[in-house]
Structures are given as C-alpha cells and as structure tokens.
Amino acid sequence: xxxxxxxxxxxxxxxxxxxxxxxxxxxxxxxxxxxxxxxxxxxxxxxxxxxxxxxxxxxxxxxxxxxxxxxxxxxxxxxxxxxxxxxxxxxxxxxxxxxxxxxxxxxxxxxxxxxxxxxxxxxxxxxxxxxxxxxxxxxxxxxxxxxxxxxxxxxxxxxxxxxxxxxxxxxxxxxxxxxxxxxxxxxxxxxxxxxxxxxxxxxxxxxxxxxxxxxxxxxxxxxxxxxxxxxxxxxxxxxxxxxxxxxxxxxxxxxxxxxx
Length: 260
Description:
The chain has helices spanning 16-25, 36-48, 60-76, 170-173; strands spanning 84-86, 109-111, 124-127, 134-145, 151-157, 166-169, 174-176, 194-200, 205-216, 228-233, 239-242, 247-249. By secondary structure, the protein is α+β, with helices and mostly antiparallel strands. It has a five-stranded antiparallel sheet with strand order 6-5-4-3-7. The chain has a five-stranded antiparallel sheet with strand order 11-10-9-8-12, with no helix packed on it. Helix 2 (36-48) packs across helix 3. The relative contact order is 0.13.
C-alpha cells in the first residue's frame, strides 16, 4: 500500500498527519494570532516531513487559510474555549507523564480530550519486517522484552489498520523520522549519504533504504532543484537516478553547512 502519493502538479490538500497536527495547534486567534511567522514556521515543518515527499510544497498562506476556516467552523459549532491548551516550553504539564517526551519543532501542545495520539508519535519511523520498507509510525501500542534481551514495540503505521500492526525491534528498526529537503538545500547532500528513496514499481511504491553514489549538479529553474542523484538500494543492490523530491534524509543533515 502506498502511503505517499506520486507528484502532483498543484497543491491538493493537507495530509491526515498535517491536519491532525494543526488541530492540536489550533487556538482562539484572540489569544494567539495566526501571524505570518507562525504559519511560515509550520509550513516549513510540513515541507520537511517525509509524508510530503513527492507532493507539492505547502505555502504558509495555505496553512493560515486552513486555521482561519477551522476557527470559523469551531465558532459555528460552539467548540469549548478550553478545548485546546498551549503550554510554554519550560512549563511542565501536571498529571501528564508523557510531557517530558515531547519535542515538537513548534510550540508544545496538549489537546484536552480523550483518545488523542501523542504528538511525538508522529516523529518516528520503523522498518517493516514484511517488506523491508520504512513507514511512518502512528502510535506505539505496547512493548515487550525478548529472551535475548532485545526490546520490541508494537506499532501502528500511519494509513494502515490494526491488521497491519507489527512488532518491531527498537534498536534495529525504529528511529527518528527522516525528512525531505527543500529545493534550496540540495547542496547539503553528499556522496555516501544514507537516504530513504521512494521506489516506484508497477505493483508497489515504498520507501527503501539506499545510499547516494553519484550527484549531478544542475541549474535550478522555476520547478526547483533539477539536480540528479544516483542511489543504490540496500535491499536489492539495484541503482536508480532520481530527483531530490523522491529522497528523504536523516535529520542530522540539517546541521551541515552548504557546500559550494
């Protein structure tokens, strides 16, 4: 099953994970204006997300419009004013044991409602033992220790039902979610980098581990980055030349300075 649709020409809406995050962040605009800086920051977070790889870039104005429309709908349905609560980064939430685990790139938010997933659950990915592909984790359901001493977690993947829940080895196959780079950040990619590449075949389209083996620098145009990246898949040792939009990278790549 394909979690990430192929490239489209025009913006076609937010993903389920993005809508869920914006629902968490939504508050009364009188208390916190949905200003340009806030919406730009959130749009940048979405565009770095692996879930947007191969999709059109989100504009900050589209984020702002979504908030404004949602606020209007909430007012029309008499949504309680305290349904959402935003907490400063340095203030712990009483009686909330998972608060210390939160590490959102935007303001930390607690949604005061039942059965709402923890935001941190949107920040991890896991490798399935069924096909070797990497998928975004929706939630951690349980954990256990094997006789070998290894720890495993039962995860549910975004876009899949409970029939696809899977026990995953934490040390080997769970990690912080990979990110998509913006077009202007292609100079941070280096030969030898481990990446996730969106492999498209006739009967499947999934993210697999790969290594960058060659980079062909190209001039950018109105469409964005036109550079070509040759990658070698780890699972079958085949090679493919792709553009930046099909690749996701380890978060540590953001700390690199751009090469000339």
